């Protein structure tokens, strides 16, 4: 048996889709957005099942894992309904936001909306999987290069139980989209103010959700119509004769080589569409939400959390200097002796952690300009005396020096200025 010509392209794409669509999941779970979380989870489950199938049955049609095929064949049925249902939940929520002034009015309303969303995103796909049993011809098929695939008998109940749901959900979503856009255009200013003041959904997220739902709906309606058209025109519709007739030989598993299912052109088109649409949904969602501003901040937070374990830390936002030693200059006494004039500058300041270099400079200048001394009063309370306390209270109190005692010659020292005293360590006194 031959390996598919596109192998290993499909397994790689399915694995990438599985990873990409789950990246924004934690932050959407925090927002309790059932529609987007359901979209991500169902797409991830479908990507994982197709990933395994494309590897295990890449060049054979052997029944290696019957239980796995039972599960994945129903996952294919469920995701065909679950992804359009997730889009319906998203458009329904956007429509409610465009019609009311609050996203959630109360805890009771929140629980009610959560129950409705879960019934659409989870309950409806499970319900369709149950209905699928009544039109399931036999256990499952195994297609070489494809993997496990469900078997739906082409009878009139199959259209109501399985094939009409994507078209119905897509149509309802499109109606919600039209109503939402109309309401938004009529109340653009009020909606912009409301979204900017809301802490649960921003204008950017609202717009991205709307575009995502519209794109998904735009693909769902024509593709669901194509499936119904193919089943009605390319194959014969069998009359419904009862469940016993449909389930005759129910336990059998048909193993179909690639050379047989590739003989029908529409089989090739429909099978490749089933797989490619899952990849498209994953990439589409990541493009809209994986590069959002809030997610980029979360990526940076996760990145630095990992890098800190290896000793790397983010650069402070306020630091614009390449020389890091300028950020932490020790405040030591400086002694100079030039021409016999001794100057002592007190730079003792409390070293505190600052957010920026300018704030540390401000503290340093304050410690240089104001010298503070402490003594004890008679009552035992500390007395703070600053430089301004020793200044004269009026100009008359200033004592001028006696100019007659000033020597007529100036003794200029020819000795070179002495080198400043060296400190032995950060805590030692100047010698």
Automatic annotation (TrEMBL):
Residues 374-386 have a biased composition (Basic and acidic residues). One of its GO terms (cellular component) is plasma membrane. Belongs to the G-protein coupled receptor 4 family. Residues 374-431 are annotated as: Disordered. The lineage of its organism: Eukaryota, Fungi, Dikarya, Basidiomycota, Agaricomycotina. It is found in: Membrane. Residues 405-416 have a biased composition (Polar residues). The keyword Transmembrane helix applies. Keywords: G-protein coupled receptor, Membrane, Pheromone response, Receptor, Transducer, Transmembrane, Transmembrane helix. One of its GO terms (molecular function) is mating-type alpha-factor pheromone receptor activity. The chain crosses the membrane at residues 6-25, 32-51, 114-135, 163-185, 206-230, 275-292. It holds the Pfam family STE3. The keyword Lipoprotein does not apply. GO terms for biological process: pheromone-dependent signal transduction involved in conjugation with cellular fusion. This is STE3-like pheromone receptor. It is a multi-pass membrane protein.
